[in-house]
Each structure stands twice: as C-alpha cells, then as structure tokens.
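Q: Protein A?
A:
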Amino acid sequence: MESVEHPISESLFAAACGWVIKALSQNDQVEAITEPELLNDTQPRVAILTVADTNAGQYLTRTSHKSGLLQALNDVIAKIELDAESFEQVTNIKLDIVTHIFPLNADRVQNRHPLISDRSLVGFMLGDYESAWLPEESVRFGLFSRKGKLNRGRILDALGADRITNVNSNNAWCFATRSRSLLDGADLFRGKALRDVPAEHEIEHIIAQAKHYLCRATKDTGKFVYAYDAASSQEQDDYNILRHAGSLWSMCEIYQQKQDNELANAIHRVAQYLENSIEIQDKQARVLEKGYVKLGGNGLALVALSSYYQIFNASADLLEKLQGLAQWIVATQSEEGQFTVHKQRVRDDFVMPFVSDFYPGEAILGLVALYRLDHNQLLLDAANNAANWLINIRDKDKPIDDLQRDHWLLYAITALYNESPQAMLAEQSQRLATKIMRCQNSQQPTFDWNGGWKTPPMSTTTACMCEGLSAAYKLAVQISADTAYLHQLKQSIERGLQNQRGYQFDKINSAYLQNPAFAEGGFICDYDRWLLRIDYTQHSVMSFLNYKRWVLPKN
C-alpha cells in the first residue's frame, strides 16, 4: 500500500483561504472567482472546514472530497452554512487541505492493533475519504488511545452518523493537511499557530493570559483546580501541595511585575491555604500532606510564602511559621551539609527511603529567601553548607554529562551567589547550564520537537530548563561572563520559549474545547493530552517572566 500525495502550492493554498473567507462573509452575494490557479485545479481534493464559537464552546467540522479544489471548497462551504445556522457568532474559522493520505492495513484495523504513533499529529478517515476527522478531534474525544488504538465505540457519539457513514469499516487511512486559521491568517500545525521567538509585547500577553488562568483556577477556599482535563471539561481528583506552593510563588512573581486586584485576591486565598497546611511542633514547622512532610514542601513553602510576606507585609505570625519551616530543614542536615530527610511519615517520624534530585535546590532557595527577610546568619550558613555538599561531594569529579538537569539548583545558586559570592557557585552554574543546553532537541524528524527537551518534548520539562538557563544567565551577567557563553544561553532560552508557545491555549487552538473560556491561558504538557495542571502553567509562565526580566534587559 502506497501513500497518496496531493501537493498544494503556496499560491493555491492562499487563494483557497481567501475564497473561503469571501464566500462565508458575503452570503448570497458572492463575487465570481478570479484566481486562475483555483479555477484550473482539477486534482482530487479533500477539504475540511471548521467553524467555532469559542464563547459558547461549539464547533462544527465538515469534509468534502471532489475533483478540483474549488469544487471541494464550495461543497464544504455549503455544508457548513447549512449546519452552522444555530451559531450565535463565529470566532474561529479553520481550513485544512489534505496533502498526504496513508492507507492502513485492514487486518490491523480489524484486530485493534495500534494504528498511529501520535494521535495529535494525523487525521483519520474510516470507510471513505469524506468520513474524516482531525487530530484535534482524536484528542478531544479519545477516538484513539494514546497508544494509537482506535476506539470505535466513541466515534458515532462524538461525530455523528452524518460525518461517519460506516463506523464498522476496516478501510482506513490517516492523513496530513496544510492548515490555517482564517480569521488570524496563522498557519497551523497540530492546530496551534506556528510562531517565532516571542517579542516583548507577545511575552507580556502570554504572561497575562497565564495569570488569568491561574486566577480562574483558584477556588474560594484557596485550593487550586489542580488538574483539569480540557478535553472533557472535568476536574481530576488529585492534589500536590508542593505544586500549590510553586504556583503561589509564580503568582507572587507576576504580581511584583504588574499589580492588579484580581491577582492579589487570588494570591491571598492561595497563601492562606498553604499557611493552613503548616503544622507547628515546638520551634519547628512542617508542611503536611497526606500524613507526610517533604523537604521540597518545606523548601517551596519558604520560597512562596517569603515572597508573599515581602510583597504584602504579612503578619509576624507568618514570619514565625517561616522560621519554623527553616528550622526543620536545617535540622535535617548532616555536618557535611547533606539533607538527610527528603520524605518523612508524620505519625511515627519514619524517614522514607525516597530521595529527590530537586528537593535540595528547593530547600536552598527557600533558606536564602527567608535569609533576605530576617538576616539570620544560620540560614545562610546552612544554604552554603548544602551547596558545598552538592557541588564538592555529591557532584565532585562528575563529568558534565552525568550532572542532573536541576533548574531549582540553578535558581538556588543564583540567589545564594547574590548573598555569598563564591567561585564554586558560578562554576557549577555554568556546568549545569552546559549540561542542559547539550540536551536540547535539534534536527528532530518532527519539527515542533526542536527547541524542546525530551523526545517527544514536554512543555514542563522545556519550561523548567528555560527557567534554569535564565537563572544561569542572570548570574553570568552579574559576573561579566564570556560573551559567547551569554549568547549561547540566550539562543537556547529563545528556542525553548518558541517551542513552548504552542502548549498554551489561546483563541486559535481552543476551537475544539468544551469550555474554552476556562482553559484559555493555561498550558498543557503534551500535545496528545489536553490536561491542564497548575505546575504546567507555573513553570511555563515563570520561563517567560524570567526571560523578560533577566535576559531581555541585557540585550
């Protein structure tokens, strides 16, 4: 079985997009078509047109298979106009022209074998070319599992018999398209706009939209809508207090850049929820969740609540709690500086064998954050001890490629250097940053993997790496580091930010959502799963914010 190609030139695709806009906007007064390339095209064409009202969470997709692109367009426009009469408004129009069709083995279809490797990447036809659906619909309705297995039982409920005429057919094809958002003029891939490295005004918009999402995701209780499935519009039953603290910190950092009442009100609720999770025992305090205390929980609570205390001039009672959290952290240190407790069961103080690569950096950052408030030298000494153990004992003689890609430690090193400048900190920052940059994707077979980390990339990993590199950049500027190193850092960060842009829900890529108004501004982690979790947005917004405040001003 061979694939079928239906190439389309740039000029023909542009003419097709222009014709659809003209036809939909002029109703019965459509002018005669004048583009000769569109008039003369006679190739077999499959056109897929989507219109959406993102304010109402409605969309409509129709398909036409005709000889000649103009004929396919006119047919699909007529179908859309007939079926979209109930739409109050159209906020999104998307045109897909099929360019490649790949036939699938009928036995594999019948025997429920995996058929595709990535459900967010290709569309699917079942029975005939007009019984088609787009990759966004596979993700929205789970028409394929994440392992590529077809879920026949969901097809008719999701798409209807008017679109899929023979759901039991074993004749099947997957396909690729040339795609454009017609009201914005943005070319699309996986339903997301293809964007360049963001300019400063675009970064400000990205941050503002993420801020609005975090505020919407904050409940009256101060608890977050921790994990929200944007495909089904359902909140998932899960929570993590460390990510709660990290998200609070990101909100405080955004607020420091631009103050507003909506954000302040959400911050107060989130901070109170976190403060209520702190248990005080003698002079020590610990953040409790599900019967356990974690080094990272105390560390990130210190980071977030220290920022909150500083911004809002909070109570002396909160400062005492912060000092108690720090005392617990310091009490877990060995004489050499190692943190010996990463997770502890509260009911019997049993120390679990679990060790996190990232908790030490979070703890150091927390100690430095509190030191900036109360100037307790013991906290700075503990932070220095911990950094010394990590650099000169744990990571001593490790080649760069064996280092952990630890963005929290890069944050911590930069913060610690500001209070206690040491050559070993600057050297370790550069070693860690070099490791991160070496692992960044380039020349990948799927072009939107480039600039990210991991294969396939995950937005949160990419965001964390950009956070760490921006912290390294800040320190590198402070010590007047080599210009070539600074340029390398900046390029890596910018490629990472460009990669991340498609993971944020916006006006363009939210057409297929049930509740676009809630999801807008939030970040998913994977293209084939529309899960919004607070830490995905936390890390992503921090990566853009750090670039704006630490990298852009230096250029």
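Q: Protein B?
A:
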Amino acid sequence: MMLHYMVRAVGLSRGAPRIFLDGPLLRATGFRPGARFNLQVDAQRCSIELVLAPGGQRKTSSRKRSDAEESVIDINGREVLRSFPAGMAVRIELYADRVLISPLASELARIARLRRLLTCEAQGWMSSASLAHGIGVMAKAAHLGFARKGMALRLVAAVELDARWIDQACERNDAWSQETMGIAAPLQEVVQDGALLRRIGLVDLVEAGLPCSGASRAGKAKRRLGCMEDHPEVGHLVAPAIGVVQSCQPIAFMLENVTSYANEASAAILRFMLRDMAYDVHEVVLEATAFGAMEGRTRWFLVAVTCGIELDVQHALELHLQRFRPPARYVGELLDPVPLDDPSWRSFAYIGEKADRDALVGNCFSPQVVEAHSIEVPTLRKGYQKAGSTDPLLQHPSEPKLRRQFTVAEHARFKGVPEHLVDGLSFTAGHQALGQSIAVEPVAWLFEVLAGALKDWAKDARSNALHVFDLRPRVNRSPARAVTG
C-alpha cells in the first residue's frame, strides 16, 4: 500500500543529475538510517525502484536535524539518472519497503499522445469529439481542414445540451457517421459520468465552442454580471471542458469564443491547466472576412497541442493575409430570389422609433441596413429572428421604407456554412443554430494549419524516434522542490 506521494524536481550536483530524498515522509517508511537497499533501473518504463534488502548494495544515509537523526537517500550520476534530466519533475511513491521514482503522470500522458499521433499519421485518420456541438458547424470545419492535408477525421462523440441540435446534426451533418455517439446532455453531467467517459475513451482531437453568453458584452449587460463566471448556466463550463480533456487525452484541443473571452478568468485557468497537462497553448484572433466570408465575425481561438509539436499560428496567419485576397463579391450574389412584393418586406417602424429614443439619451445604437451592393454583412446573432434594433436588415431595392430579414439559407451562405446543415429548420431555429455557430472558412483554415503541424511532426519523428520521446525538463511547470546539495 502506498504510504505517501511527492513530486520533486531533479537537481544538479557537480554537473550531474541528482534526486535527493529526505524529510518526515521518507522517515515514515522502512528506510531508516543505515537500512540497506538495492536500486533497480527499468529503462523501458523510465523508472527507478529502491527496494529494502538485507545486504543491499546501497545504504540509507543520515543527517542531524534538530537533534534528531533523519533519513537521507541521495541518488546521483548520469548513468543511473540517464532518463531524468536536471530540471525535470518526477513522481515519487513511498511504500513501507520500497520507493518508486517515475515521470509525472502528465509527462507519461504526453509521450503516450505522441505515440498515438504516429499511429494516426500512419493510418491516415484521427478520432475527434465535439463539445457544445450545436448543429456541428465547427465539427464540419474540422473535417474540411484536416481533409485538405490528407487526414480524415472520425467524429466519435458530439456533446450538446439542446437535443434539437443533436437531432439536426444526426440527420443532416455529414461529419457524423454510424460510429458517432450523440450526447444530448449538459457538459457538466458528461464529465461526472465515469461510465460514459470510459465509453468515449481516448480521442485524438477535441474541439469546443463553449457558449459565449457570459463573455459577450450583451450577455454581461443583460444579466448584470460582474464577471463571465457569474453566469449561472454557462459561466463554469471551462471546468467540465478541462475534465473532458483530461479524460480523453487529445493530441490537440481547440476552443472558439468571442474575443473578450481571452481576458476572462476561465481563459487564464484553461491556459495554465493545459500547460500543466503538457500542452503548448497558442492563441489567435481570426476575422471571417479575411477568409472570404461575407459576414463580419471576429472570433478568438485557443489551440493546444501536445508539448513537442511545433505550431506557429501567428506566422501562418501572416502568410495567409499576405497571399490571400478575398474574392470581390456583393451581398446580392448570395440572396434568395425573394419577390419584391413578398410580405417579408416590412417597414420595421419600431426600430426607427427606438433609434430616435436612443439618440435622445445619448445611446449610439442605430439600425444596420445592408444593400445588395454591400460587400459585408454585420454579425448575425443567435437571436436574429427577433429583429432587434441592431440586427442587420436588407434594404428593398425600390421602396426606401421597406426592409426584410435575411433568410436562413442566406445566413448560412454569409457564414460559408453548407446549406444542408440547416435543411428542414424553421426560420427561428435556423437563425438560432447559425447565430451561435462559426464562419466555416477561417476555422477550416485553422484546422488545416493544425493538421499540417501534426503530420509534419509525425514525419520528423520517424527519422528521429530515439529523441522524440525523451523525457524533458519543463521549467515553466508548477514549482517542484529541486535539491542540489
């Protein structure tokens, strides 16, 4: 039975790595001053085991502290510690008759993920899971991006609170397959269901579009939130998202949200927890129109890749912006053939009246009117079907007082969303589903960049396998005590 557990950092003494054990936790074991033990190195498991044995090759040392004799074990030397570089943190299990020294669980998980990546690259596909799935627009973008690099994705699980969206995705989203498990449940319940997590198992890629209700300015103002995390329904969802990452151990993880999310406490927690789970975290803000989308939608993305995989999203974005020029298109090219006398053309007088009232009290909210010759459409929100005072409306070509809302199909085209994903949805449901979704092309591009980095790493690893899986010091990790003598 394990008595105690500790994390220590490998120190450095006279240019050689050193592990120094002392203190009351060691004293509680059978390693008393003078006790003999043998040291066994398991190179395959990267572990060192100290086993008490009469006549053992080594002896527990001692030193005086506060008039008491204290046990000391000093392990040093390049040969014995060849798998443990100075600065690396190790886990130490203390038993009554033995001590086991091995890499941290996070380091072993890192190496296991990298080994899985080699398998994925060889077989040509990776498994994926989608959190806050909606109708699966981000999952679809992931499939598109990976396919551009010759890598297929197999969606194994889609988690979404609203069963309507799971049903729609199951019927219409071709990112799904017979192997996809639809999970219509709160994310915070999923992460507490051990049987469900075991059923999902290890997943190579996890993507998430956590709700932005608490992070957006409108969401905060509506509920008068002091901070995003005060939102009673979605403010805490970063916690179960981290739990899913811990359980599924993805090679890479991607989160999308509004730009203000990057400054919230949840983002800080996510960054540092992913760091301590042996991921390198990258962040980027993408403007959809820079990728050819008609809708002006700016979103923040966090991309975490297993430590050891090289990824430079900012450099990739700079190259994209230098090389890509969005095609010259007008809103009119993406419109449905709605008759000019259709009842959808209305005056929306209440919007003008509200704008006048707002102006009197100093508010700057004004109607957003789009014409057929416009080259961009302002952001279409989840509640677009309500025709709020700032929701974009299309100007009638010949009647100045008439405007109409965009159709669901038009909304999809502005975002670059395949229209079959919203087939069969009502006006209200269609706009709700699309309004909380991403613009496809920038996200597909980002997944393409990620897929390229993963494939490049795997190819390099095949010619450098002996070094790729070396245990590494991680100086930016949470502090662990290093003793150098």
